[in-house]
Design brief:
This protein is an alpha+beta fold. It contains three helices and seven strands, in the order αβββαββββα.
Length: about 150
C-alpha cells in the first residue's frame, strides 16, 4: 500500500470528526468564512444552508434521542409547526432524519429544514432557512445537498 493510500484510510474517519462538509446546492455560493458554522452557502433568493457539529456528550444519545430533542425545541419551545419528517442517508451511508418546520403566515412565512446525523462521537446538524416559497422551490436541491454530507 502506498503512503497516500495509507494516509487517506487514516484521515477519512478522522475527517468526519473535524472536517465534515457537504456539496452546496446548485445555484448556491459557498462562503469562505462560515463561522460559527463548519460550512455555509447562500442563494441569490436569500436562502441559506449551514452545517455545524458538536461533540456527542453521551454515546447512548443516538439519532432517536437527538431527533426528539430537535422536534421538542422547534415545536414546543420555538412555536414552529412540524410539516414534514423523513429519513435521510448520507453519501457515506449514515442514516439521518430531515425535519421541515414553518412559522409565520402569508408572505412572511418562513421555512426551516433541519437534517440531523448522529454518531457516538458527534452530532451533525444541517440547517436550511428562508422564505417558505423560496425554500419550496429549492427543497429537492437542499435535500440532495444534505445527503451529500461526508
Amino acid at each position: 500500500m502506498n503512503r497516500t493510500r495509507v494516509l487517506c484510510c487514516f484521515l477519512l474517519p478522522v475527517g468526519l470528526v473535524g472536517c465534515a462538509t457537504l456539496e452546496p446546492p446548485d445555484g448556491y455560493v459557498k462562503l469562505k468564512a462560515p463561522k460559527p458554522y463548519d460550512f455555509k452557502a447562500v442563494s441569490p433568493q436569500g436562502n441559506a444552508i449551514a452545517l455545524s457539529s458538536r461533540a456527542n456528550e453521551d454515546r447512548s444519545a443516538d439519532l432517536d434521542f437527538w431527533a426528539a430533542a430537535v422536534e421538542h425545541q422547534k415545536v414546543d419551545v420555538d412555536g414552529m409547526k412540524l410539516v414534514g419528517r423523513r429519513e435521510l442517508r448520507s453519501r457515506s451511508g449514515l442514516i439521518g432524519v430531515l425535519f421541515t418546520f414553518e412559522i409565520g403566515e402569508g408572505q412572511n412565512r418562513l421555512a426551516y429544514l433541519v437534517a440531523l446525523y448522529v454518531t457516538p462521537e458527534r452530532v451533525y446538524t444541517i440547517e436550511a432557512a428562508g422564505l417558505a416559497d423560496a425554500i419550496a422551490a429549492d427543497t429537492e436541491k437542499l435535500r440532495q445537498s444534505m445527503e451529500s454530507f461526508h
